[in-house]
Write a structure and sequence with these properties.
It contains 10 helices and 7 strands. It is rod-shaped, with a radius of gyration of 30 Å. Helix content is 51%, strand content 14%. It has 2 domains: 140 residues, 3-Layer(aba) Sandwich (Rossmann fold), CATH 3.40.50.2300; 56 residues, Winged helix-like DNA-binding domain superfamily/Winged helix DNA-binding domain (Arc Repressor Mutant, subunit A). The longest helix has 15 residues. By secondary structure, the chain is of the alpha/beta class. A hairpin with a 2-residue loop joins strand 4 and strand 5. It has a 5-stranded parallel β-sheet with strand order 2-1-3-6-7, with helices on both faces. Strands 4-5 form a two-stranded antiparallel ribbon.
């Protein structure tokens, strides 16, 4: 396997030097280019082949997300991983949408950079545990059906609940002390609002939606 061309995007000189030393000890690493600004990273991406981008996001002249996006556009076979102190949801999602396949936090006690990069090359997406949980929570929130507003009036709910329990129209009228001729009116309104054609369908839909007790 040919050696990897690695682009380090980190504006903190101390951290950048530490990352540089770590990658110099990695047998798969070839050329290692270190940049402290977005401008330098953009120039590198435009003029040099990059196999792996390791990017911070908070830079003095912009966001590392822009470097990730540019790399995805110009060198689609390259891989990008974020190592940042920032973890708010909107930024994490921006980075992933831009093309990042991993997201690690600098304060993660279990941070293993080479292990994470090996995972990226193997097709996995290494993430700090809190970031992975954030992603799961976001997906679950998106897939949770929105609660449907109950279109039935309180009286219609009472009438439908009684009908669902087997009461006749006459018994419903007596139960709620309303005119016998009023019950069919409520029933028609219920059918229209729930878009059903009979009492069985009405009862089922109302129970499914939580409009009446099951």
């Amino acid at each position: 396997m040919s050696k990897l061309s690695i682009l380090l995007l980190e504006d903190n000189p101390i951290i950048a030097q530490r990352f540089q030393q770590i990658f110099e000890g990695w047998q798969k690493a070839g050329q290692i280019i270190s940049c402290e600004t977005l401008a330098d990273a953009v120039e590198t991406i435009q003029n040099h082949p990059v196999d792996l981008l390791v990017a911070d996001l908070n830079l003095p002249d912009g966001s590392g997300v822009d470097a990730i996006s540019l790399l995805s556009e110009q060198q689609p076979d390259a891989q990008a991983i974020v190592i940042s102190a920032l973890s708010y949801r909107s930024l994490v999602f921006r980075a992933i949408r831009a093309g990042a396949v991993g997201y690690l936090l600098k304060d993660d006690d279990s941070l293993e950079i080479i292990q994470a990069c090996e995972g990226v090359l193997a097709g996995t997406s290494p993430m700090t545990a809190s970031i992975a949980r954030m992603m799961i929570d976001a997906v679950q929130e998106e897939e949770t059906p929105a609660k449907i507003e109950n279109p039935l009036t309180p009286r219609e709910q009472e009438v439908l609940s009684a009908i669902a329990r087997g009461y006749t129209y006459k018994e419903v009228a007596k139960l709620y002390e309303i005119s016998a001729s009023t019950v069919p009116v409520h029933i028609r309104n219920i059918y229209r609002k729930l878009q059903v054609n009979n009492r069985a369908q009405a009862a089922y839909e109302a129970k499914q939606q939580g409009f009446i007790e099951a």
